[in-house]
Structure formats: structure tokens, C-alpha cells
Amino acid sequence: MFQTGNSEHLQEMEKLLGELKSDMAPLKKIDDIHQGVSDTKADLEHLSKLPYAKGAAFNSGLWEHKARCLRGTRVNLLQEIRTWSEIASDAGIYWLNGLAGTGKSTIARTVARDCHDQKRLGASFFFSRGQGDLGHAAKFFTSLATQLANTIYALKPYVCSAIAENPDISERGIAEQWKYLIFQPLSNVKDVSLQSRQFILVIDALDECFCD
């Protein structure tokens, strides 16, 4: 026991406590790492419960050999889309329409690649008639939510919480899937650095989506 009146003993105690704190610091880091691994494992388990449409993302192997805009082509249109994507405005949707075969999907793949390379692509979904889950909307929002959670780290806990609180979410209508898996998680993100960034969702060939 150290007596409060003995300054040498107090100094020795402080020294020992300091050494003990230093010795325990790595243990705290190990505990933090272990907790992080546990959280990551839990998140993966939650996300694995969401049905995912194979081939939905722009960089899926399904689209590997599909063309993107060649350098120097569609310059004005691509610049218009880039400008829209970089400026926050009430125009939250850029709707690209045109006749079949006019290159809309090529433009969509190009925009998705550019945003991905700039780390601004939140998610993408390329519908395709006759391509299984890509031909309907049953796994549309669950696939987008999975991509968003894996792309935006700060969003993942909210998406995973939504899955945990709504274990039957994949069986519900698409309006509720949108509300609980995407809208509410995005609304709950408090990270200021993320709130100032523009993340883009690229949806292609919506007209090839079969609705019951």
C-alpha cells in the first residue's frame, strides 16, 4: 500500500500505472480489432439474407464485353450528365430516353464506370429482358441496398439494422423495401463528409423490367 504522504511512493505508483497503461494499450487495440471483426461478420450475415440479382452491377461479368463510349464520342451528352451528377439540385433524376438501339445502355455503362473510378457510384442495376432476375424488379431494391452498404461504409450499419428489424423485408412489396433498405438508411447517415458528396445510382433499361 502506498501512503499519500510519501511523494517518492506516489511517483513510483504513477510510473507503474503508466507502464501498465502502456502494456495494456495493445490489448485494447486487439479488443477493438476483435470487435470490428465481429461487427463485420454480423454485417455480412445480415447482408447475405438479402436476395441479390446476379449480374445487376455494371461491372458484372455478364456485361464484360459490352461496349462503352469510345473516346471523343457523345462528348456533349456525357459532359452534361457529369455536370448534373456533380451539382446538388432539386433535379435528383437524370432521365435518358430514346429509341431502341440509340446507345442508351452504352452511355449508362460509361457513366457508371466514370462514377465508379471517381468513387462516386453508389450502386447500379442493369435490367435485361429474359435474363432471369434482371428481367423483373423482385430483387431490384435488395440488390441496390447490398451494393450501397458495401460501397458506403457509414451506411452499412443502418442497412443491417433494417434487415435485423425487418427479417421478412425481402418478401414485402418494393415500396417498403425502398423505404426500409434505402430511404431510411440514407436519411440516418450523420457523417458530414458523406452528406456533402454526390453518390450516383445508375439504372439501365427500366423498360425491360417486367411488372406483374
Explained architecture:
The chain has 212 residues and is mostly helical. The protein is globular and about 85 Å long. Strands 1-2 form a two-stranded parallel sheet. Helices cover 51% and strands 5% of the residues. The model is unreliable at 1-5 and 27-38 (pLDDT under 50).
- What is the number of strand segments? 2
Major sheet attributes: 2 strands, parallel
Spatial order of the strands forming the largest sheet? 1-2
The fraction of residues in strands falls at: 5-15%
Shape call = globular
Uncertain segments are: 1-5, 27-38
- If helices are DSSP runs of H or I spanning 4 or more residues, what is the number of helices? 7
- Class from helix and strand fractions: mainly alpha
Average residue-wise pLDDT: 83
Between the first and last Cα atoms, what is the distance in angstroms?
Answer: 79 Å
Residues in helices, as a percent range: 40-55%
Cα-atom radius of gyration: 25 Å
Sketch the topology as an H/E string, one letter per element: HHHEHHHHE
Give short descriptive properties of this protein.
212 residues, mainly alpha, two-stranded parallel ribbon
Write the layout of secondary structure elements.
Elements lengths: L6 H41 L27 H12 L17 H14 L3 E6 L13 H12 L4 H10 L8 H15 L3 H4 L4 E5 L8
Parallel strand pairs: 1-2
Helix pairs in contact: 4-5, 4-6, 5-6
